[in-house]
Amino acid sequence: MVQEGMASAMVRPDETSESLGKETIAGVSAEGVRLTMTIPAEDLGNERPIEITRERWFSPELQIVLRSKQNDPRFGVTTYEVTKLDRANPAHSLFEVPRDYQIRKAPGPPQPPAPPK
């Protein structure tokens, strides 16, 4: 279930929220919520109401959004999804100082030009 604080903090007065339950995405459990917002007719010069839906699948364990989808008839469908998640520790060599690494003293600032005579 989506944390109540998370869902209520994301809902605007003209939005409705519904829980989508749990799903496994990229091998990680996620909790889904769908937010639906309707822009009334004539609000933006639109003849008919515009319905915008947003789905977010959040992993409480990793504290990241694993999937999001927004469907807005004005802009189309936008999707984001984690498809490959490597939870293994990175190679130790990534954190080693290169053998040819040197510490050098930075040159001092340039001297101002000599005053004219």
Structural commentary:
The protein is mostly beta strands. It has one helix at 4-10; strands spanning 15-25, 28-39, 50-59, 64-72, 76-81. The model is unreliable at 1-9 (pLDDT under 50). The chain has one domain (4-86).
Strand order of the largest sheet: 1-2-3-4-5
Q: What structural class do the secondary elements suggest?
A: mainly beta
- What share of residues is helical? under 10%
User: Strand-and-helix sequence, N→C?
Assistant: HEEEEE
* Major sheet details: 5 strands, antiparallel
Radius of gyration: 26 Å
Strand residues, percent: 35-45%
Report how far apart the termini are: 81 Å
* Total beta strand runs: 5
Low-confidence stretches: 1-9
Chain-averaged pLDDT: 87
How many helices does DSSP assign?
A: 1
Count of the domains: 1
What general form does the structure show? flat
